[in-house]
Amino acid sequence: MEVGTYVDKGINMAVEYAPNILIAILSLIIGLWIIGKLVGFVRKMLGNHFDSTLTNFLSSILSIALKVMLFFSIASKVGIDTTSFVAIIAALMVGVGMALNGTIGHFASGVMLMIFKPFKVGDLVDIGGGHKGTVEAINAFNTTLATLDNQRIIVANSNVTGNTITNISGQGQVGVELTFGIGYGDDIDKARDIILRVGKECPHILDAPAQGVVVAELGDSSVNLATRPFCKSEHYWDTLFYMQENVKKAFDAEGIGIPYPTMDINMISSN
User: Fold this and answer.
1) 24-to-37, 67, 106, 143, 170 alpha-carbon distances in Å
2) pLDDT at 83
3) Which percentage of the chain shows pLDDT scores above 90?
4) Domain 173-254 maps to which CATH number in 3.20.20.370, 3.30.559.10, 3.40.50.720, 3.30.70.100?
């Protein structure tokens, strides 16, 4: 009798729960298919606007969140009490959030860089007045710069957004700030003509805006002439180095001296 009773109870339970289990399985299959399609669509949309690394990261977060929601929805339909699961997951999320506080800040800063786009890959930037280089990559948690001497600087995104960002090449054209000192006994107009002549010979300097030379400062030991020739952003370093070298050579050829600080020492004899 006992065996028959258990069999009857088993049959009754199967009959009672079979529809729910079947619905749960179908819901799981259909839900996973819909989530896959939705995540693929979102990944495609994000890929048109954001970096691939950030796109994949956001897509994976969306996929996990939707699958967790699907799990709880199916579990409740089957009759499983999900309250304890929610409490455990909430506690885990709080702990993980506290442990990854800095990392989450870097990620949020990365999202801000993607949205506001203060610079893009290939731009020459100066971050915080100390990190200067060409942007190689804008990742979810850090930004990579390549310096002129082929070093790689990796800056956390929160440090990028928390500092002053100077996009040197962001406008397509950039002015190259240059200062040349000459002696007080040298001819200012002659030195100005030499600087302008070298600028015209430089293959990278643009005709407009026109280059000018002004007296920027009467220094302690030199008259400082300032000029700002414009060039395309990708020719910034070439223009800077060309002007510095060739102006020095032209000054030497024309007898224009570039002074350096000197000190007069007066000896007083005790006799």
Assistant:
1) 20, 14, 39, 45, 55
2) 65
3) 23
4) 3.30.70.100
Residues recorded for the chain: 271
Any idea which fold 14-99 has? Helix Hairpins (1.10.287)
The CB density around residue 128, as the number of other CB atoms within 10 Å, is: 14
What tokens does 21 get? 């289990």
Give pLDDT, residue 1: 46
Q: Report the candidate in 100, 125, 97, 112 with the shortest Cα–Cα distance to residue 54.
A: 112
**Token pair belonging to 4:** 């028959």
DSSP, residue by residue, 43-96: HHHHHTTS-HHHHHHHHHHHHHHHHHHHHHHHHHHHT---HHHHHHHHHHHHHH
**Among 148, 110, 94, residue whose Cα is nearest residue 126:** 148
What residues contact 126, with CB distance under 8 A and at least 6 apart?
Answer: 132, 165, 166, 168
For the chain, the structural domain boundaries read: 14-99, 118-167, 173-254
Q: How many CB atoms lie within 10 A of CB 255?
A: 9
Query: Given this structure, which CATH class describes domain 118-167?
Result: mainly beta
Q: How confident is the model over 185-225, as pLDDT tens digits?
A: 899 999 999 999 999 999 999 998 899 999 999 988 889 99
**DSSP conformation letters of 224-261:** EEEE--EEEGGGHHHHHHHHHHHHHHHHHHHT------
